[in-house]
Amino acid sequence: MQNVELTLQQRILQLNDDMKRLQLQLALFDEILSHNDITLHLDDFDARVNQEIAEIFGSSSEMLEAYARAKHDETAGWMNLPEVAREYSWKDREAMSFKQRARVLERCIANLMARRSILLNLKHL
User: Fold this and answer.
1) Helix axis angle, 39-57 to 8-33, nearest 10°
2) Count of domains in the chain?
3) What is the DSSP-derived secondary structure letter of residue 58?
4) What is the mean pLDDT of residues 74-101?
5) 8: region left, alpha or beta (phi > 0 left; psi from -120 to 50 alpha)
6) 7 within domain boundaries
């Protein structure tokens, strides 16, 4: 069995590619949110983001779990509110869920940037 090891430069390039993939998803998320009927596109988007995060960070990563929590917060607890407050609360929770999803993607990108920075510093030693 052949031992395959990425060189430092290859790893830096891979991190760059991973960052671009997530930045593209973040831009796509902004585009989806700018449309009125986002529910049709959001499920597909969430599936793609879950796949990207799992491929980059691993299927049991903290980042994947954080995205799942952000996605599911949009329905948490609204059933216990009075009828008058439900519509506002639902919209408010939905908006918060969207913001949380974007923050998780931003955190993923920041994590990759930090990793790249460490590798770049090692490269110059």
Assistant:
1) 170
2) 1
3) -
4) 62
5) alpha
6) no
- Between the CA of residue 4 and those of 7, 10, 16, 59, 115, what are the distances in Å? 10, 12, 20, 22, 20
Instruction: For 124, list phi and psi in degrees, rounded to 5.
Output: -90, 5
| CA R_g for the chain | 18
**What are the tens digits of pLDDT across the range 31-87?**
887 776 566 578 889 999 999 999 999 999 999 999 999 988 644 444 344 554 555
pTM assigned to the model: 0.79
Q: How far apart are CA 52 and CA 108, in angstroms?
A: 11
Give domain status of residue 20, yes or no. yes
Indicate whether 96 belongs to any domain.
Answer: yes
**pLDDT, mean over the chain:** 82
Residue with the larger pLDDT of the pair 6 and 61: 61
Domain with 85, as residue range(s), is 14-30+44-123
Instruction: Tell me, yes or no, whether 109 lies in a domain.
Output: yes
